[in-house]
Amino acid sequence: MKKKVEILAPAKNLYQGMAAINAGADAVYMGAHHFGARSNATNSVEDVAEMVKYAHLFKAKVFVVINTILYDNELEQCKKLIYELYDIGVDALIIQDMAIMEMDLPPIVIHASTQANNRDAQHVKFLHDAGMKRVVLARELNLDQVREISEATDVELEFFVSGALCVAFSGNCYMSVANGERSANRGSCAQNCRLPYQLIDGTGKTLIANSHLLSIKDLDLSDQLPNLIEAGVTSFKIEGRLKDIVYVKNNTSYLRQRLDNFLEGNEKYEKASSGRTFYNFEPEMDRSFNRGYTAYFVNKRKEKIGSWESPKSKGQYIGKVLEIKANGYVIENYEILNNGDGLYFVNENGEADGAQINIMFNNIAIPNTFKPLAVGTEIYRNSDAEFNKMVEKENSAVRKIGVSLKFTETVDGFQLLAVDEDGHQSVQSFQTTKELAKSQESVIPNIKKNLAKTGNTPFIVDEIEVELSSNWFLPISKVNEIRREVLEQLVDIRIKEYHREEYQIQKTDHPYPVQKLDFMYNVSNKMARAFYKRHGVTEIEKAFELQWDPGKARVMTTKYCVKYELGKCARFQRDTMGEKLVEPLTLKHGENEYKLKFNCKPCEMEIWEKDAELEFEDEDEQLGYVPRR
C-alpha cells in the first residue's frame, strides 16, 4: 500500500481555505474563535463546519489549531470548543499545551504543534507514545535529524517548507511579553524580530547603526521535497494564516505541481486527497509575498539567512537599473513589468525603499513618485499587479474530481450511473414513454456531449458509456436534468461517506525525556502540570507569562546567529573572520536593550534583557581550540 504525502495549506478564513483546496491542498489548518496562535485569524464554528464539508468533498482534511498556552480559567471553555469541533467533523487538533492531553476528550486525533519542543527523537517518541498521531517538527532541524526521528518512531511527521520563519526556536519567543506584555504564546506576537536595531560591542562602539538584525528570510524547501520524503516527512506545511489569498493560492499551487512531478509513477508514495487542479496561471513563489528565500538549516549551516534591509516583502528579482531617463528608470527585463507594479530596491542611503509604477512608457518605468537611483541598483518587484489580478480570480485554480458516467435503459425509462475516481456511486433514473428518433442519425453522440457538461460542479467526466437497444428519442432537457441530479447526489454521497480517522487518548505514565522543565515548556495551568508530573517530571517552572522578572530574563533562544551573519563565526568562518568581536554584543531599539550570548557547541544564540547577569565564555574555549581558564 502506498504512503500518502500531503500539502498542508494555511486558511485565514473559509474563503481562503476553499481557495487552498481548489489550488491543490490535501489539507488546511485554521483557527477557531479562541486559542489559536494568530489572534487575527479566527473563525466561527459555523465557518469551520463549512470548511470541513468542502474539504471532505475532495477527501482533504481540516486541522484546527488550539496552540496557545491555556490558563486555569480557560480549561473548561477549551474542552467545550474541542467537543464542538469534533461534532462538526474536524480531522485533528494541533496543540502545544499538554493540559489538553489531561482532558476527557472525544476520540479526536491530536497533533503536536511545533511549539511542543519537537527537536529530538526522545521528545517526539514520547509524544507519539502519549497518543499523538502527528508531530510538527521544529523548523531548525536538518535532514539527518529528521531521519533520526523518523527511525525512532513511526509517528507522522510534518515539516514547514514555505513561508515566514520565526527566528526563535520553534516559536518559543518571549520578546513580546517583555516589551509590552503581548504574549506570542497567546496569539499576540508583536513582531519584535522585525524591528530595526543597533548592534553595539563590549566597548560601547556601534558596529551597525540601524538594521533589522533579527529579521530573517522566508523559507523555501520546494526543491527538497524528495529528500524530506526520504527522511520520513509526509506532510509539507505552508506558513501563512495571516497572508493574502494570492500568497496562499500561489504557494499551494507551486508546491502541488512540484510534489505531483515527484509522485508521478512513484511506486511508494501517492497524493493524500482526490481530484486534480487546472491552473489558469503559472505559479511562481517569488511573485507573492517573500523576504527573499533560504533553505534555513535543512542542509545544516551553509548560508547567511538574514533579511537585514527590511522585514517587508522583497518579491521577484527583475534586473539592474541601466539608465535614468525622463523621471523614470530603464530596467533590465523591463518588458515583464506592468502598470501598477510595486518596486523594491535599496536606495543611495543603504535603506530599503520602493516605488509604484504609474505607467510603463516604451522601455521606461515611470513611478508615481520619482526617487533618484544609481545605475546598477538591483530592482525587485514586490507587487505584481497583473499576476495578482489573475490569481485572485476564482477560476485561476479549479479542482475537479474524475467521474465515469454510464447511461442505460430501464424497463420503463432510462438510468444514469456515476462512479467517481474513488469508487463512490450515484444513480438516478426517470420514467418516460420510449419513442424512436425521427432521424436515422445516432442520438448517442448528442447524449454524450450533454452528459460531459459538468459546468460548476466539482466533477470532470473522464469516460462516458451509452448503451441503448434502439435509437430512442430523448429530450436534451431530460439528459441535462438527470446529469445534474446524479452529480448533486454524488457530492452528498462523497461527504457522507468520508472516513474520518478517530483516536481515543488514553492516559499513560511513560517517562518524559527530562525531569526538569524550564519556562520554555510553557506550563501555565494545573492540568499541564499534572500531565508532566504523571510522566515523572520533578521540577516544573511556570510559563514565562506567569513569572517574568522584568529586565533580567532570557527572551529568546535561536539557531540564527548574528556572529555568523557578520562573518565572525569561530566554528565555520575561522579562517576568514579576522579579529574577534568584543563582547558582550548588545541589540538596541529605542529604550529596549538586549544582550547576546553565544553558545558555540550547540550552535545557538541567546537573547537576554539588559539587566541580566551573564557569564561569557570565549568561543575558542567553548570549541576547545584553547584550554579553559
TrEMBL record:
Domain Peptidase U32 collagenase intervals: 379-494
InterPro entries: Pept_U32_collagenase (IPR020988), Peptidase_U32 (IPR001539), RNA/ubiquinone_mod_enzymes (IPR051454)
Domain of life the protein comes from: Bacteria
Pfam annotation, one family: Peptidase_U32
Protein name: U32 family peptidase
